[in-house]
Amino acid sequence: MSPESDGPVTEADGMTQPAVARFEAGGTVPTIPVLERLAHALDLELVVRLAPRTAA
Hints:
By secondary structure, the chain is mainly α. It contains 3 helices and no strands. It has helices at residues 3-13, 17-25, 32-41. α1 packs across α3 (32-41). The termini are far apart. Mean pLDDT is 79; it is low at 1-5.
């Protein structure tokens, strides 16, 4: 996300601009609910997938 997108994302999902900035800077590890809110605000679908490891 860029500074230009902070406004629409924070407005759509109820997150504060400082919360978005911490997320962008790597200062916080997002939870699944936070990722769901961000996906919704960006009109995206959150997909979490577990897959078997491939042989190294």
